Structure formats: structure tokens, C-alpha cells
Amino acid sequence: MHRPPARWASLTAAFFLTLVAAFFLTLVAAPAALAGSWLTPGATVVSGTASQPDGAVFDDGSALAIWIEGGAIKYADRQSGGGFGPPQQLGGAGATDLEFAAQGNGRAAAAWRDASGAVSLSVRNLNGTWTPPQLVSAASNVRPAVGVGDNGDAIVVYQEGTTVLARVSLGGGPPGPTTTVDAGVAAGTSSPAASLNRTGTGVVAWRDSAEAAIKTRIRLAGSLSFEGEQAPYADGAVPPDNPEVAMNDQGVAALGFSAASATQDLVYLSRRVGGLWSTPASLDAQALAVGSPPQLAVGLEASNNAILAWAIGPGAERQTKVITSPAGGNIVPLGAGISVDVAANGSGAWVVAWIDHAGTALARARDTGQGIGGVTILGGSASGTPGASINGAGDAQVVRAGSVIATGYDNTGPTLSSLDAPTKANVGEAEIFAVSAADNFPLSSKAVWTFGEGSSRTGNRVKFSYKRAGRFTVSVTIADAAGFSTTLRRSVTVTKAPLAIRRAKWSGRYRESKLIGRGKSKKPYARIVGVVRKKTTIRIRIRRSVGGKPKGKVVARRAKVVLKKGPIGTKADIRLPRKMEPGRYVVETSRRSGPAFAPIRRIINVRGPAEGVADKAFVSNRRTGKPKKVLTKPKVIYGNFRFSLAPRSKKPLTITWYLDGRQVVAPVKQKIIGGWIRA
């Protein structure tokens, strides 16, 4: 966002007449019903004195706020649906001017100038980290401009003396060589402007005071230089000032700027389509405000409509306005205000925010295909210029200062991604259905699944098995706290397979254990229970499970397992190595002979060593039966054991057996060496 010149920004404090507590209220009904909803009352990012706030809301619903505090550049991140984390310092000492740009995929760039004129640049990576600040210029005499693309390419435009210069950082790397954009523009009094679209193609604009002109150049994606100087406006009688630019992904650009005659301030707008700028259209003319020229902000939709917002007028008469051009073309008065910002996305949604004379932050939003919404009060005690941003879904954010407060606008339901649902399944076999979601607002509930045959489940990851064959539609729905929901659907074909593996499990247990001594054990094994419609011979092998998929060497196998026809099914055991490491394994089955069927996989969990407690134990000469006498000095004891984890093979294990109160008055401890205990 391009900030207002210091010569009028310093005057805005005189307009702060009252302090208004932060709260949420819709003042004016929207001309058309809005889908969006504002967060209430917004999230305080940091307490204390801050200035020049800005930020971004990204396509995954996460967000960022950035500002100057005590001469340092600080920022805070917000995860999708959550709150802002603690402030982090990006850099800067004695910073006086901050410029910020971002893209929906999470890329961002910040450029700032300190009191000595040094300009620095830092680029935000896709993982949320920032590159170390890089020195761009040691002697800039105006506020810099910055732009960034999806791939991390960033441009910084600044002025040294009478020369407008630029440097390009490719992919977030060190700034490239200095490029002269224009020379002989007179001493710096007006900041340049810059904008890059997602591809990295962009436009820069500046004021040439010597020629009383607004000039532009284009930067092509991947280039270190700028080409095609054009002057959309030149008029010595009405000299221009304060250029603002935006470029969309189609390469169309918008340019807004102000001009001043002897008696009036004027606002102009031009668009660049097909490589040529249109004749600037005069949108507004008000009484000259000496020392407080118009302040502008510009956005551009994918349909090439420009959105220009501006504040114009002297003193208490200063007003804020917005226009969409050429669509509609009618100026919409926003109300009394001293500063304004606007942001637009590619689908026709945009948000405008402004600060009124009492220091209250306000906003209006336009959803795709609808009219502009009513005025919403975001909160009081605001200063400077707010920072507005919007993502591709129409979710928006406004960041304001004194204390840095970010307020979000939710326009859509959650974004559902990573949908894991089968397109084919077998009757009686449990399948995994999973989904992940992101949203600007917190999610209000877990995913709700329906499976097309009357059943439902709740959770972001669920298991479900169909009881009959057919073609079904699976749907999953998640809602957010604003009341918006998103539903995804997928078709699944369910067949009655020749082979159905009802279950697969790992086991290994003691058959007998003496009070002191070595217990006899059965080797650990994996067991599957299969049901077939016709006698089938299968192969079984077991490998490590990584992400639910087999990986690595086979740890156990059976080359021939015969499953006989029957409603109950046939058990098949596969012995496991004694020193098998605990963890998740995949049991894979494939056909050897009999009816054809698709390979089937099941997960087993081999558990690690642990201590446990027997829930029942009794004295008997056999494995079953009731206790014959009160337990005093038993020689042999039998029990059923339940453990959260099973012991590793050949490792000592101490078990405390708690018997029924009628049989024993104190626990008996036993050391077992070797073998496995049933989990």
C-alpha cells in the first residue's frame, strides 16, 4: 500500500476529535444482500504506539499484519481460523516509511526507509519465513515503492537526488544491479508507485516534476530491467502528484493520481489496455487543500475494472470516495475522512477502508456480483492510513493503528482440500474418508460426512464400510463461525468382492507363566480373517507402513494361504520375527488361484514394550475354570492380561497381578524373561 506524503500526514492528528471504543455495527443497509460478515470486534495484534499498518489475507485463510513500532519493522502471523501470534521484529532501526505488497499464495515483500535515507528489502517465503533485510539504497530522498510476484520476484523503486532508480530481487534473492528508471526528475518530493501481478509482470509510476508529468514503465516477468517509458499525463498548468498503480494477471494496469491547479485539487484515473494508457479521466475536483493533497489507493479486477478510492478536500471538509470504472462509473461517497485504502481481487470483490476525522476506522465491502455493502465501524482510536487486503475467495482484512488491530471479513465458506475418499470400495471393507479445511474465520464444527445410503459420520477423518453394493455419492460439509459452509461430493462404486478381509491384527501371548521362571510363549503373529464366496488361494506379505502405504523390505510372508468358502470366514496366521520393531505395518494380500480380486491392504500395529496389570488371575491346573482355593503360595498362576503396549521380545518384564479380593490380599510381582504378552 502506498502511504500519503509526510507533508499532509502530519496534519491528520488535528482531526482526531474523539476516541471511539472498538465495536461492531452495521450503519447502512447494503443495496444488495451481502454474503460476507465482519469479525467482531477484531484481534488486537499488539498494544502500544504503532504506525503505518498494513497486511494481507492469503488464499488459505491465513493472514499477516505489519507495522512500524518504535522505529522497528514488526509483523505478526495468523494461522487459518486462528488468532495472531506474538509480534516478531523483521528489521529496521529508526524506520520512518514502510511499504508492503503481497500475493495470495503467501508471498510478500516489505521495503522501508530509515531517517538516514537507507532503503532495505525483505521477502516473505512460502513457509512464512522472511529473508534477511538487504540494503537497496543508502541515500533515498523519498518513500520507496515495492511489488512482489508469486515466485518471490520483488521490485523496489526509489529516488536518489533527481534520479528514479529500481532494483529487482529474483525469487527472494539478493537485489540485482541498480537500474535507472528516469533521470532529471527534480528533487524528490513525491513517492513512486509499483505493482506486480502473480506472474511477476508489473508497472511502476512516478512524478517527473521537471516536466510536470506522470510517467510509467513496464517490468516483464523474470527481467531485471524496465522498458517502454510512457507519460499518460503531462500538464505544466496543472502539475500532477501522488501516483498509484495496480496490475492484474491479464497485464492490464490502472493508474490513479492527483493534480493541483491554482484553486483546486483534482483526481484522475487511467487504464492501460493493449499496451496504451487511456486519456486520464477527471473524477473529482475540490477546493485546494494547501499542504494536504488528495490521497489515493487503486485496485484492479480480473475483468479490467479499476477501483479507485481517494480522500480529498481541506480540513474538516475532507471526504473519502470510491469508484469502479468503467463498470458502473458512479462515484460512491464514503463519508468524511482523512485517509483511505482499497484492495480488489480477480473475481470482482473488493474492500475499502478509511479513517474519519474522529479517528474511527470504517469499511465497506463488495462481494462478487453484488452491490457495495453498508458502512461498518471497525473501531476507534485509529490514526494514519488503514491497510486493506483481500484474497481470491473474497475474504478480506483491514489493519489499523494506534494499537495494531486487524479485523477480518469472511465472504466464503471454508476451503476444503486434501480430500481422501475412495472411488471404488468393496462391501464390508472399512475405508478411510479424510479432509482438511482452512478458513479466514474459525471453523465452527468438524466435518459431517454422508455416504449416500442413509449413514453419516462426524470428524475430519472417519472410517466407514458399505453393507451393500451400488453407486453412492459421498458428501462432506464443514461450516465456519460466520455461518458459511462448504460441501464437496465424490461418487464411489461399491462391489461385492470375491474376497473380503474382515480384520487384520497382530498378536502374541504367553500360554503359561510360572511365578519365577521362563514362560512358554507362542511366537508373535499377524492374523487375518477372510470371507470368500469360492475357495481362494492367496499370498500374504507384510511390510512397514509409511503414510498408510507399504514401504521397504518384506518382514514376513506366506506364499500360500487357502481360504475356504463360508459365512464365518477362514483365519490365516503369518508369523512375525521375534525382534520385529514396534510400529505400523501393512498386510498385503494378492490372488494365487481362484476368483480374481483386487489386492487388499490392512494396517496392523505392532506394539512396543510396557508394563501392565492383569485384570483377572486364578489358581488352576487348567487354563479355564474357577479358582479352587484361596491364593496363598501359588506355584502356577493363569490370567487374562490387558496392556496398553506389549513388551519387546527377550526383554525382562515385571508384572504386578492384582487378584480378586476374595483370593489375595496383596499384589504379587513376577519377573518374566522372553516371549510376548498379548496386548
Task: Lay out the secondary structure.
Elements: H1 6-9, E1 25-26, E2 37-38, E3 43-46, E4 51-57, E5 63-69, E6 72-78, E7 88-91, E8 95-102, E9 108-114, E10 119-124, E11 134-137, E12 145-148, E13 154-160, E14 163-169, E15 179-183, E16 193-196, E17 202-208, E18 213-219, E19 227-234, E20 240-247, E21 253-260, E22 264-273, E23 276-277, E24 281-287, E25 295-300, E26 306-312, E27 319-325, E28 332-336, E29 339-344, E30 350-355, E31 361-366, E32 376-379, E33 383-390, E34 396-401, E35 404-410, E36 415-420, E37 424-426, E38 431-438, E39 448-450, E40 456-458, E41 461-464, E42 470-479, E43 485-495, E44 499-507, E45 510-514, E46 516-517, E47 520-521, E48 525-532, E49 536-546, E50 549-563, E51 570-575, E52 583-593, E53 600-606, E54 613-618, E55 636-642, E56 653-657, E57 668-672
Parallel strand pairs: 37-43, 46-57, 54-56
Antiparallel strand pairs: 1-32, 2-35, 3-35, 4-5, 5-6, 6-7, 8-9, 9-10, 10-11, 12-13, 13-14, 14-15, 16-17, 17-18, 18-19, 20-21, 21-22, 22-23, 22-24, 25-26, 26-27, 27-28, 29-30, 30-31, 31-32, 33-34, 34-35, 36-38, 38-41, 39-40, 39-42, 42-43, 44-48, 45-47, 45-55, 48-51, 49-50, 49-52, 52-53, 54-55, ...
Q: How would you summarize this macromolecular structure in one to three sentences?
A:
It is built from one helix and 57 strands.
Features:
mainly beta; 5-stranded antiparallel β-sheet; elongated; single chain; 57 strands; 1 helix; disordered C terminus
